[in-house]
Amino acid sequence: MKIEHIAMYVNDLEGARQFFERYMGAVSNNLYHNPKTGLQSYFLTFDNGARLEIMKKPDMVDAEKSFQRTGYIHIAFSVGSKEKVDLLTEQMREDGYEVISGPRTTGDGYYESCIVAVEGNQIELTV
């Protein structure tokens, strides 16, 4: 069994697509639009075949995103090396994203950094 894809709603569909393309190397399909429901979405595919669906619908509620909550908390991307974690973290910091931890080695052995991006959602970079 494998996870087929993960989905997230966003307000700025094009901005989210561009973020994942620029920093994570995602490749996007063409925009899907359902005129009946107003749903718009992209499937983003990453190097190893993992997919993320980003979606937008009219009249969505944008709840506060506390990092101390139940449910999904971050998306982790393995970038291949400590040096790449360092470089990508610094690039995101320079581009105005908030780095909330790292780069560092965690107690469970991960080398990672955590960045708040894509409408307040947490992105983890790891080896």
Give the gist of this structure.
By secondary structure, the protein is an alpha+beta fold.
Explain this structure to me?
The chain is of the alpha+beta class and 127 residues long. The chain has 2 domains: 6-56, 2,3-Dihydroxybiphenyl 1,2-Dioxygenase, domain 1; 74-126, 2,3-Dihydroxybiphenyl 1,2-Dioxygenase, domain 1, CATH 3.10.180.10. The chain is built from 2 helices and 9 strands, in the order βαβββββαβββ. The strands form 2 sheets. Strands 1, 2, 3, 4 and 5 form a 5-stranded mixed sheet that branches. A 4-stranded mixed sheet has the order 6-9-8-7, covered by helices on one side. The chain starts with 5 loop residues before the first strand and ends with a strand.
The best one-word shape is globular
Q: Helix fraction?
A: 10-25%
CATH class category of the largest domain = Alpha Beta
Low-confidence stretches: none
The tally of domains stands at: 2
Radius of gyration from the CA trace?
Answer: 15 Å
User: Number of helical segments?
Assistant: 2
Oligomerization category of the chains in this entry: single chain
**Average pLDDT over all residues:** 93
Q: How far apart, in Å, are the first and last alpha carbons? A: 24 Å
Here the CATH topology of the largest domain equals 2,3-Dihydroxybiphenyl 1,2-Dioxygenase, domain 1
CATH superfamily of the largest domain: 2,3-Dihydroxybiphenyl 1,2-Dioxygenase, domain 1
Give me the CATH architecture of the largest domain, please.
Roll
- Summarize the helix and strand pattern as letters: EHEEEEEHEEE
